[in-house]
Amino acid sequence: MRSTLLSFSLYLLFGCSIAMATPEVGQANTHEFQLSNGLKLIVREDHRAPTVAHMVWYRAGSMDEVNGKTGVAHVLEHMMFKGTHKVKSGEFSRLVAAVGGRENAFTSRDYTAYFQQVEKSKLDEVMRLEADRMSNLNFDDAEFLKEIQVVMEERRLRTEDNPNSLLNESLTATAYMSSPYRHPVVGWMNDLVNMKAIDARDWYRSWYKPNNATVVIAGDVNPKVILKAVEKYYGVASAKELPERKPQIEPVQKGIKRVQVKAPADSAQLAMAWKVPKLEVARLDDDEPYALELLSAVLDGYDNARLNRTLVKQERVVNDVGVGYDMISRGPELFFISSSMAKGKTVQQAESSIRKALKEVVDKGILESELKRVKVRILSDQIYKRDSIFGQAMEIGSTEMAGFSWKDIDVMLEKMQTITPAQVQAVAKKYLVDEGLTIAVLDPQPRQSGEAKQGGNRDAK
């Protein structure tokens, strides 16, 4: 996953010029409200097009699940389209399409979110539908039994028939000992096989409450008008005490962990993950997470970045290489490097090349010009994000779900501007060490005749 902060980079270097070109986008045009039932409303005005993105974010994802019921957050996401007392199963999507809108939903480790994007005059209609299923979801056991089969097939296609997904799943499950991040969002197959309709209903009753939800509306809207509409539709929902969220602190790792996965594939794969810090709400000025963000971009932020240039183009030891780090999240974080072997090359050769490239950063650091180029590249990759109504709503919602405020985004960007090459070098030296490293290797097995190379994709619902 590409980092969250990189997606905010529109402000990084040309914040003033962007503000002048699009004055409607920014903090001055973002409004926050709190309803009496605990629901948070955030409205972003952007009058450049007569469209609106309407999103409801529930702070309940796979990290809130318990053993034996993994995947229930994602299953409930599917069931949310199965009707209420007023709307029959399947009607939700049809009604949104009937007004010319698009809609979907997604579940992550930290949250579950639902969205519609419509012409501004149709906002009330989708708001009414979404508010209805916040309080009045109604599905029978037969609907659940059909949908759980869909979810199991989704797991087969996206994970069990996909060697890259299998490797990442094993890597995560090995790296984490106590954190619920060790479980896949889609759930373990055995838990899905044994899941009952009551499990999904219990999840809904526990977490789908206004005091655990944030509504984000971005587009051609009037905040005062929106507040009245939200109070009308969502204000009738009753707040409820939420389940206690117990801290599940990950124990300190004290040495390399290794895991091997055997699966049909065309080539061997290598994935390496280090335990690293994330940004904490109370410590927005902590240098290290920002430096880790920039380190990930130095290694893999553009076509000729360090790892791609060295491993793919020069040494030709791997076919591809990727780096991932997410600075803001509810749970602990990892710094990932993954690659697939070039023909005739071994995993040992790839690991050696990666370690050599990282040692060069640790020993010699990075150049000021290199860091500046990364920031410019980040900006060029993200420059059109502010033209997306949906993108703005996504940025606000995901930041809020991690426990931060949308107001913190500018603070983060300003802080990242201050990070120096020495600080990037320091985090590489401190955290990319064997004590906190987990290594996963895919041992490719022969494919059966006619077997698909990779699982397909299925819509979220």
How is this structure best described in words?
The chain is of the alpha+beta class. It folds into 2 domains: 15-233, Cytochrome Bc1 Complex, Chain A, domain 1; 257-445, Cytochrome Bc1 Complex, Chain A, domain 1 (2-Layer Sandwich), CATH 3.30.830. The chain has 16 helices and 11 strands. It has helices at 15-21, 72-79, 91-98, 123-136, 141-160, 163-175, 189-193, 197-207, 223-233, 287-300, 306-314, 347-364, 368-382, 389-401, 408-417, 421-431; strands at 30-34, 40-45, 51-58, 102-107, 112-119, 213-219, 257-264, 269-276, 318-324, 333-341, 437-445. The protein has a 6-stranded mixed β-sheet with strand order 1-2-6-3-5-4, sandwiched between helices. β4 (102-107) and β5 form a beta hairpin. α12 (347-364) packs across α16. The longest helix is centred in the N-terminal third of the chain and has 20 residues, at 141-160. The chain is globular. Belongs to the peptidase M16 family. One of its GO terms (molecular function) is metalloendopeptidase activity. Residues 42-185 form the Peptidase M16 N-terminal domain. Its cofactor is Zn(2+).
